[in-house]
What does this fold into?
Amino acid sequence: MPPAGTWNRIFRGEGFRRLCGRGYLLAYGQRNSAELRDNSNDNGHTGSNWSFSLQPEHVNDFGYRAQHVTTVAAKAIIKTYPQREVDFSYFYGCSQGGHHALMEAQRYPDDYDGIVAGDPGNDWTSLMFGELWTGVNSSVKGSAFDLPQTQLNVLTNAVLAQCGRRDGGLAADPFLNDPRDCHFDPSTLQCKPGQDPSTCLTASQLQAVQAIYQGASKPANSSADLARLPARQRNVLARGSGR
It folds into this structure.
């Protein structure tokens, strides 16, 4: 709790990535602890494994409830201190924290004046199946299908060269603002005879990329997609990063 004379009358809630299991304050909040009043929680469980899922109430805490009840409690505590009125409340979260941000917006819209839901992990079935599909079609399939960082960089640079700046972004941006407008054909990167392998994709690596881009689908009698890689996640694939 910052000293009364330095508080900027802003309350900030923090969402944590992955499974959480401990309280977490972002570096931004820590650096500005003399001005901000922050709130974080462990989402109702301790540790980063799924053992908490055996108890339904812990699942509810993780899914949506923990952020709300700790927000209400934190604001009540603030009122007991000098300069107790909060002018503005903001929630920040990315990945799993983005999912919690969406839950705050949908279930408890009065908790915060503004919410930043970065890269929200909100569609768990598709997200988890999508991650499985990515692994099955690359490294798990065999070393020839693996996509090391060198090849991911080749893919990233080619995508940016074709589609960068077309969606309102800056020339220096290492990502696309709206990947839906990018219709990049990875087959243009297939290695030619005698080409430096660090500058292209082998036939197996190209097969892996195309399978990941296409995503899984149900049997031939159904057109429903199971885990088509969302356009926004193709940036993640190209960067070789994840949650």
Summary: The chain has two domains: 10-118, 124-239. DSSP finds seven helices and four strands in the chain.
